Automatic annotation (TrEMBL):
Residues 31-267 form the Xylose isomerase-like TIM barrel domain. This is Sugar phosphate isomerase/epimerase. It comes from Terriglobus roseus. It comes from the Bacteria. The keyword rRNA processing does not apply. The keyword Isomerase applies. Keywords: Isomerase. Pfam families: AP_endonuc_2. One of its GO terms (molecular function) is isomerase activity. SUPFAM superfamilies: Xylose isomerase-like.
Length: 291
C-alpha cells in the first residue's frame, strides 16, 4: 500500500487502550486495534480496565500477544482506585514525586505491581509520569524525580522493560527540564515519551521546540490533538496541532519511535468504530510532509 511505502521505517504504529478505559480490556478490543494497523499496543494500567494484579487476566493477555505479531508497551498506573470504585470522574492521583513520603512509597509500589505483568507479557517499555499538574520545578522535584526514575529503572531492567519519562502538562516535565534531569542523573539508558498534545498547550513551548530539545532521546510519541487550552486527547486533526511539524520531527529522528494514538475514552465508541477512526488517523499521519 502507498501509505506503508511512504512511512515504512519511520514510526511504529501503536494504539493505547486508554481509548477503551471505561471497559474491561479483552481480546476483542486488542483485535480491533490490530485491524486498524497497530503494530504495538500500549496497555494503560488501571485496575478496572487492565487489572495487572489479576494473574489469570494477565496470563490471558499474554497468550493473545504470543499469538499475534504485535508488541506491547505499558503506561504506568495513575489511579489509586480499585476496579469496583472507578468512575470517569476519578482524578489521577498516583504521584511518584509527591511531597509526602508515604504517598511516594505507595505510588512506587503500585507502579512496580503493574510492571510485574512483564513476567508474562513481553513488554518493551514503561511510560512514567513525574508529578501532577500542580508540581513545579525545584531542587526538591529534581531530586525526587531522579530517585523515582532510578528506582523504577532498576526494577524494570531485569524484566527486559525500558524506562521512558513523559512530557506532561507541568513544569517538572518540560522538554528542557526532562533533559536536565536525565543529564544530571547520568540516566543514559532512560529516554522520553514525547506527548504531542501536552506540548501543544499554550504554556508548554510548542511541538517544534520539543523535537528540537529532546531530539534522539525520543523513543515513543503520544499522538493526540487539542485546541491549545486544555488536554482534550482528541483524534489527530480535530484540534490545532500542526501535524506537518510532527511529521517533520519524526522523520528527523535517528531512532524509529513508537507512535501511539492516545485518545480520550468515549462511552459510545465500539471496537469497530474505534478501528475505523484509528486507521483514518494513521493514514493522515502518513501523508507526505508539505514544504
Amino acid at each position: 500500500m502507498l501509505c506503508g511505502l511512504l512511512w515504512s521505517g519511520v514510526m511504529k504504529r501503536s494504539i493505547s487502550t486508554h481509548v477503551f478505559l471505561q471497559q474491561r480490556l479483552h481480546a476483542g478490543l486488542l483485535d480491533a486495534m490490530v485491524a486498524a494497523g497497530a503494530q504495538s499496543i500500549e496497555l494503560f494500567a488501571a485496575r478496572h480496565h487492565f487489572d495487572y494484579t489479576d494473574r489469570a487476566e494477565v496470563k490471558e493477555l499474554a497468550k493473545w500477544f504470543r499469538s499475534h505479531d504485535c508488541r506491547a508497551t505499558l503506561h504506568q498506573p495513575i489511579f489509586e482506585t480499585r476496579a469496583s470504585d472507578w468512575s470517569r470522574h476519578v482524578p489521577a492521583t498516583i504521584n511518584l514525586i509527591d511531597v509526602e513520603k508515604s504517598r511516594r512509597i505507595d505510588a512506587m509500589d503500585e507502579v512496580k505491581r503493574a510492571l510485574e505483568a512483564a513476567e508474562q507479557i513481553d513488554i518493551d517499555s514503561i511510560v512514567l509520569h513525574l508529578g501532577t499538574a500542580n508540581d513545579t520545578w525545584s531542587e526538591r522535584s529534581l531530586d525526587l524525580s531522579m530517585t523515582a526514575v532510578e528506582h523504577i529503572k532498576a526494577f524494570a531492567h531485569p524484566l527486559g522493560v525500558k524506562t521512558l519519562v513523559e512530557t506532561l502538562h507541568n513544569d517538572v516535565t518540560t522538554p528542557e527540564h526532562l533533559m536536565d534531569m536525565l543529564r544530571i542523573a547520568h540516566l543514559d539508558t532512560v529516554n522520553v515519551c514525547l506527548d504531542i498534545g501536552h506540548v501543544n498547550l499554550h504554556d508548554m513551548g510548542g511541538v517544534q521546540n520539543a523535537f528540537a530539545v529532546l531530539g534522539n532521546r525520543i523513543r515513543e510519541i503520544h499522538l493526540h490533538d487539542n485546541h491549545g487550552e486544555k488536554d482534550e486527547h482528541l483524534w489527530p486533526g480535530d484540534g490545532t496541532v500542526d501535524w506537518d511539524v510532527v511529521r517533520k520531527g519524526i522523520t528527523g529522528l535517528k531512532h524509529e519511535p513508537v507512535g501511539t494514538l492516545e485518545i480520550a475514552y468515549e462511552p459510545e465508541i465500539d471496537a469497530k468504530a474505534m478501528s475505523a477512526k484509528a486507521a483514518k488517523a494513521f493514514a493522515m499521519l502518513e501523508e507526505p510532509v508539505r514544504n
